[in-house]
Structures are given as C-alpha cells and as structure tokens.
Amino acid sequence: MAAWLKLASALGIATAFSSLIPSCADNNQTIFIRQVQALRAPDCTITPDVTAFVTPTGFLDVGVATSYTIYPLVGNQLQARGDARQLKSEPNRVLIEGAEIELVEPTGAKLAGVGGLPNPYTVIATGTIDPSTSSDAIYNWTAVEVIPPVFLQAYRKTLAAQGIGTSRTIHAKIRVYGKTLGNTEVETGVFTYPINVCYGCSVFVPVDAVDAKLGGRNCRGTTEGGSTTTRLVCIAGQDQATDCRVCQGVIPLCTPCDDDTACGGMISQVSGTPSKCNTTAHYCE
After folding, report:
1. Which residues 6+ apart lie within 8 Å of 108 measured at CB?
2. Which domains are seen in the chain, by residue range?
3. Is 220 helix (H, G, I), strand (E, B) or coil?
4. CA distances (Å), origin 87, targets 83, 103, 184, 186, 238
5. In angstroms, rounded to a whole number, what is the distance separating the alpha carbons of residues 119 and 38?
6. What helix, strand, coil percent values describe the chain, rounded to 5?
7. Cβ atoms within 10 A of the Cβ of 80, count?
8. Residue 122's beta-bridge partner residues?
9. Going by DSSP bridges, is the β-strand pair 68-76/242-243 parallel, antiparallel, or unpaired?
10. What CA–CA distance (Å, rounded) separates 285 from 276?
11. Structure confidence by residue, pLDDT tens digits, 232-281
12. Which residues does the chain have with pLDDT short of 50?
C-alpha cells in the first residue's frame, strides 16, 4: 500500500475512534435559553410552553423580597439516538446541573462581589430536557436564583440610603450548564436579562384596603367599608406590584404608618434594629 494510502487509512481510523469519545459541547448549538417564563397569579405555575407568558425584563423590590429567582426556558437541540427495540438507551437527554451568573451594570462594568460571594458565581439548577425527534428543539424550564440574599442585602442598603422609590438597572448574564446521559458536558450561550431593582417602589395601598374611619393610608380594610380580599402575588416584591395586605405587619415596607406604633414588633431589613415609621413616606422602614 502506498505511504499516502496508509496515512489516510490511519487518519480515518483515528477520526472514527475520536467521534466515539464524549467531549465538551460548548458551542451554544446543543442547549440554549429561549426566554424567561412568567409566574402569574393565582396559579403561580410554570410550564415548558414557548407560547406561555414571559418576562422580558425583571423587576425586584429589595425592600420586600429576600432573593430573586427566574425561570429560564431551556431548549435541547440534540437529536434522539436511543432505540427501545434494540434496548439502546438514550444518550442525548440533558440533565441540568447549575447556572453561572455574572451581574453587571448596563455599561458592562462588573459589579463587585459582596459578602464573600464572587462575581461571577454559580448556583444549583435542576431539570431534565428530552432530545429532539425533529428539527425543532425540546424545552423544559429550570429555576435559577439570579440574585441570592447576600447580593440583595447589599443592594438594599445602597438603595435605602437614597430613599424609598430609588431604583437602578442591572444586567444578569446567565449560562445554564449540565451533562447528557452520554456524559457529554453542555452549556448555553450567555443570556442577558435586565432587572430593574428598586427600594420600596412595588408596595401599593388599594382604595378598598383603606379604612376611612381610621384615616391615612392605613391598609386595614377589614372593618365596615373595607375589603378583606387581597390581590394575589406569587412572590412578594418580584416582577409585579405588591398589595400591602399581602405582607402587612411582617415586612416593614408593606406596612403604612403615621407613627412608630404601627411598626412595633418588626425589625428593619436595612439596619437590623426595631423598625420605625418614615413619617414622610408613611411606611415602616
């Protein structure tokens, strides 16, 4: 056999063999984040439906919430290779293992890590995505804690010092990663998710929650002329306005006040000391 034929034969064998070895699939063509699914009251459930309600941008009231979790819809574009008739297991089913998150300013400047938590950082995420049997991807959702408590506390102190209603925008750059049942590592490309972060701006007092006999923005609504029906929220302070009756007496900023009496028994989320009334904004803090 000619030398060049021997070389070609050897390369062919090597190529065929290498195709059998699992490798890291990090080219963004295996799994990807399509959108972020919305939690909607009253059901507050998530479905892996591409036509479901989405949240193109996030909203977080750090004066009410304790962390911020989103629900990315992740697609798997790997083709099914299993065959039940031949007792061949499916290697292209994806097991989600976690997510890497980097928080940045809209300018692209990276936010400093706080409380010993670096930036970027990783969090646990779980879920299983079946392989595709057509040219369309198969989807499933996962839960990703984009802003953990230690970061949220830092935002809370910064924004609280600037007053109720203060807001800022941050961008969360998210990668979801995992492995196939065939032991191939996979990850999505970067999905950038803008989040409007504010302090105290989500809490509102509905008209039917005010007891006219008591005066002020009292958020009682449990006596004559009032209503005990509260507006349902899935997670207080996250992605929608928060009816003051949902968390009144538990979270300071959910509790309107005229003096410190209404704030008794609550602890300030900013200072960690007994909550007092902000008589200008009429909220406990």
Report:
1. none
2. 22-198 (2.70.50), 202-285 (no CATH)
3. coil
4. 6, 46, 21, 25, 47
5. 26
6. 15, 35, 50
7. 16
8. 100
9. unpaired
10. 6
11. 788 889 998 888 888 888 888 888 788 898 888 898 888 889 999 888 87
12. 1-27, 84, 223-227
